[in-house]
Specification:
Elements lengths: L1 H6 L5 E5 L4 H11 L4 E5 L5 H7 L3 E3 L12 H8 L4 E3 L6 H7 L2 E3 L4 H13 L1 H16 L1 H24 L3 H5 L1
Parallel strand pairs: 1-2, 3-4, 4-5
């Protein structure tokens, strides 16, 4: 991100950090001399204000264990109409691509830089798709419907199993 920020001097990056390795991060920023990255460290009382002030939310990850299944920051960002920039390892990457509510980028310096540039050009298009994507994929109604379908499938499966011959019964 530091190298990409160097290549994008007109873009202001805000990193919300959760204290872990904060000293290492500060040292990296100081040594790099990059001036367009600021860090907010620790618990943030009003994340909504940060989303409102931002244009995009970035969720970079190098592997599939980089994130929890659906990061709250992704949902909060979409709900507030802020496009996502995510790597393919994010569980939400397929939604971002299908719903055109952000950019999926390769986790490289040029991949990130190009995603930022593309998102800036396509911002209006991406932004208008954010809230509809959040509602279509993550609303309470959607979750209830998905759980209902899951339970119905489980019940059908258990009913089918109830009538099936049991190897234990046949062995007696």
């Amino acid at each position: 991100m530091l190298r990409a920020a160097e290549r994008l001097p007109d873009v202001q990056f805000v990193l919300v950090w959760r204290r872990r390795n904060h000293g290492v991060l500060r040292d990296l920023l100081e040594r790099s001399g990059v001036a367009n990255i600021s860090v907010i460290d620790g618990y943030v009382e009003d994340m909504g204000a940060l989303y409102d002030a931002a244009h995009m939310t970035v969720l970079p990850g190098l592997d599939y264990t980089s994130f929890k299944p659906t990061p709250h920051s992704a949902l909060d960002s979409l709900g507030r109409g802020k496009p996502l920039l995510v790597t393919p390892t994010s569980s939400i990457a397929h939604i971002v691509a299908e719903r055109r509510c952000g950019i999926v980028f390769e986790p490289t310096i040029s991949g990130f830089e190009n995603a930022v540039r593309e998102a800036m050009v396509r911002y209006e298009e991406l932004q208008k798709n954010c809230h509809p994507a959040a509602v279509a994929c993550f609303s309470r109604e959607v979750f209830i419907r998905k759980y209902q379908l899951l339970y119905e499938e489980l019940l059908q499966g258990s009913q089918a199993l109830a009538g099936a011959p049991s190897p234990l019964r046949e062995a007696r």
